[in-house]
Amino acid sequence: MDTEKKFKFTCTGKKNLTFNSKAVQTDLMRWDLSNRLSLVTFSYNNYFQDYEAKDFVMDFFTDPTVQNSLKVFSSSRQELVLWGSHTVNSVQAERVPCSVTSMEFFDR
Prior knowledge:
two-stranded antiparallel sheet, 3 helices, 4 strands
């Protein structure tokens, strides 16, 4: 029996100018991520509470808009490809500390 999804997602289509800046693109090339990473922004329809993290993540990865917008790196093709329609059986959500706010973290 399918349960009603609380969260619905919309692709905003916004272009993130910081992500496309020369400095960020230089760092991505240095870390060999320039052709392995894409940025897509989404909005969602309901207020999010921490205790709903697992439902939020499950709704995100099972949302048709998300599945048809996300790109993943294909190691066999060596390029980004659309993720497409997938069955998601389970998800895990873990709180990530947000104390690191500098890209220098990756230079270690």
